[in-house]
Specification:
The structure is a homodimer of 236-residue chains. Helices cover 42% and strands 17% of the residues of chain A. The first copy, chain A, is α+β, with helices and mostly antiparallel strands and 236 residues long. In chain A, the strands form 2 sheets. In chain A, strands 1-8-3-6 form a 4-stranded antiparallel sheet. Chains A and B meet through strand 5 and helix 3 of A and strand 5 and helix 3 of B. The structure holds a DNA duplex (30 and 30 nucleotides).
DNA sequence: CGTGCTTTTGAATAGTATCAAGGCCGGTGG
DNA sequence: CCACCGGCCTTGATACTATTCAAAAGCACG
């Protein structure tokens, strides 16, 4: 194991492993593996057996679920410090992934096997609590996303998806970075519509200059309603 | 405290408190309070200060969020043994609820204050792990719900909501029990549409006899797609 | 210089929300 | 007892929105 593989010197300060006791960080360091995934590669596929937990060291990942008519739906995005493959540990031994995870750009992912993770839970209270808080936060964000999915027009959902992208990946200039990693089809899969609608609405938003406004938005994923989504519900 | 207030003899075997060590169950028993809420009463309101964690002893609760145009959206349903007001503990001291919780029928809810809960986390590893698993499960269910919200037609969303109702509350005869607790407006708020659509689609489903089929459905909230929702995607 | 891929635009169709009006109770007070 | 009220449920007509199908333009790559 080289130095770049060390959890102690890892630049990502958000990684949950850091909340373990020092000797446990060492232990996880020793058992974990670190893999590079190219853009478009699968980290895991639906129905693969769950063998452990993934930590995104750096990169951008989409978690997709095959929905009705085989239409792909992006249920979650994961960036630096996030975890992938929750639901794996703790359940029955023969658990399988209900979703697939695909790299949106070249990414480095750490992997810790089930046994180690599970034992770490029992030995590192803070670690479990942090993870629980993470789930709790994700759950809340999900509730908000679901609410908006249910109530918004397509145009608003698309705008909202851009905000979500910015929130998770922290894009600065929506335009270029966005085009680099995310296709129109991806945005559609995130917004629950088709690529044609995405294209139409993006050009409209661009005409109005709303895209730049979106880039400046700082959504609070809990209490606040989106203010400038350029739709009927616009409240600027 | 009378006997019915005891966590040891509580009939609900799913309650998370049971995964604490015996002496901690006693401690929680002593500090907790137990309140009856009538149908329609609020357990907590959006922006109330979070003071602890609620456990549904028995009853049916809807967790609602005010969405766009002030339209109510039901983001979650909670039945026996479920918890309410997650997100409270652990965060900043002055946390507030991002949602409201309302009783759908007369319900009994236990309440444990923040300090006790938080200390219990640190002293009862199994307790935290169970809670984490619960969140993880809820998160997964939420991802599925979101996917369907995004991809389904109104008709299918309504059918799906009925399955969700059955899953959480375990209705046997959809018809009567459903009408007793849930109004058409509630189903609309759960499905992300309006009461008119709910009415139209329910009568259609009834004509086709699909309602009864729905009652027999046993949805797997993870991998399986709904098979008999009586829409375009129907695959009977 | 095709070939395959994503993006873009158009037109026809289907689905959904909204508005308006009326029906059906259960309760309340004259 | 009956009339009235307010609640929820139901139905219809209309305007709007979104999906789908089709076709073409742009672009990278061998």
């Amino acid at each position: 194991m080289n130095d770049s593989n060390s959890c102690l010197t890892c630049v990502d300060s958000n990684c949950f492993i850091k909340s373990c006791y020092p000797d446990w960080i060492f232990r996880i360091m020793k058992t974990k593996s670190e893999t590079k995934y190219k853009k478009g590669e699968y980290i895991f596929r639906v129905r693969d057996h769950v063998k452990g937990l993934f930590f995104v060291k750096n990169g951008k990942i989409k978690v997709v679920s095959t929905g009705l008519n085989g239409k792909e739906q992006i249920v979650r995005l994961a960036g630096n410090g996030h975890i992938l493959g929750h639901r794996g540990f703790g359940g029955k031994s023969k658990e399988v992934y209900p979703v697939s995870a695909i790299a949106l750009e070249d990414s480095v992912i750490c992997f810790v096997d089930n046994d180690t993770i599970y034992e770490a839970f029992y030995m590192n209270t803070q670690f479990v609590i942090e993870l629980m808080m993470f789930y709790s936060k994700e759950l809340r964000a999900m509730e908000v996303r679901m609410k908006y999915m249910a109530q918004m027009t397509v145009r608003e959902r698309i705008a909202f998806s851009l905000l979500y992208l910015k929130d998770v990946f922290g894009y600065e200039s929506s335009e270029q970075e966005l085009n680099a990693n995310i296709s129109r089809a991806d945005i559609a899969a995130l917004s629950g519509t088709n690529k044609e609608q995405v294209i139409r609405n993006l050009t409209e938003l661009e005409k109005e200059g709303s895209l730049l406004m979106l880039a400046d938005e700082n959504p609070d994923w809990g209490t606040k309603s989106p203010q400038t989504l350029g739709g009927n519900h616009m409240t600027i």
